[in-house]
Design brief:
By secondary structure, the chain is α/β, with parallel strands linked by helices. The protein contains nine helices and eleven strands. It has one domain: Alpha-Beta Barrel (TIM Barrel), CATH 3.20.20. The chain is globular and about 45 Å long.
Length: 227
């Protein structure tokens, strides 16, 4: 007998569009392709305002992460930090997850935590992968501040990618990613360590090494032969 065993790791697909009118179309496409969660990158919007964002989220009506990424961590938000946090605070009552960077002032993270959404506390290094002890420190700090820890690092060699797998094996409720083509396999292996979420590409590729959603679904789901 053949049984298909499905991964419990949810696949999130980022939506990175400049115009709010295009978000709905991309969201529908991502859902059709099999996304479990959508990541709405509101920092990509030319003129992000909560009224339009709220209306779009309600119309999509699908599990969602809202991210308003700062420029120093690869984001595009051009407003003030106060404006950035205000948008996240308002969104925290209408979506399932809010992604907020570890370098954000603790007082702002506490304010976002008052919303209904679970918080993903994230840290990105686009140049290197730190030593394991430093990564442990980062993840433990994230876990104290929010519900899910997230780290993403640029590998210089295969050993760097193994550090990410070590983090996944050591911590629960943690998303750990090794970027670029060298580290792309860690996005698939995340499911073997029961990571809550992994990221794949739909129409918008927002990070190096992202695998397209169709390939990701095939890799995450395995067939088991039972006699």
């Amino acid at each position: 007998m053949k049984r298909t065993e499905y991964s419990q790791t949810k696949i999130a697909i980022p939506i990175f569009q400049k115009e709010i009118k295009d978000v709905l179309d991309v969201a529908e496409d991502c859902i059709k392709k099999g996304a479990d969660i959508l990541e709405f990158r509101i920092d990509a919007l030319n003129n992000p305002n909560f009224k339009d964002i709220k209306q779009t989220i309600e119309e999509i009506n699908f599990p969602m992460i809202v991210t308003n990424r700062i420029q120093s961590e690869g984001g595009s938000f051009k407003g003030s930090e106060k404006e950035r946090i205000e948008l996240l605070k308002k969104c925290s009552n209408i979506v399932e997850y809010i992604d907020v960077e570890l370098q954000t002032d603790d007082k702002y993270i506490k304010q976002i935590n008052k919303g209904k959404a679970k918080t993903i506390i994230s840290y990105h290094d686009f140049k290197k992968t730190p030593e394991l002890e430093e990564i442990y420190y980062i993840v433990e700090k994230e876990k104290k501040l929010g519900n899910i820890a997230k780290v993403a690092f640029m590998p210089q060699n295969l050993e760097d990618t193994l550090k990410v797998l070590a983090i996944l094996s050591h911590y629960d409720n943690t998303i750990a990613i090794s970027m670029n083509e060298l580290g792309s396999y860690t996005r698939v292996m995340a499911s073997k360590f029961n990571s809550p979420i992994t990221f794949a590409a739909g129409r918008d590729v927002t990070a190096s090494g992202q695998i397209d959603i169709e390939t990701m679904k095939e890799l995450l789901n395995i067939n088991i032969e039972i006699e």
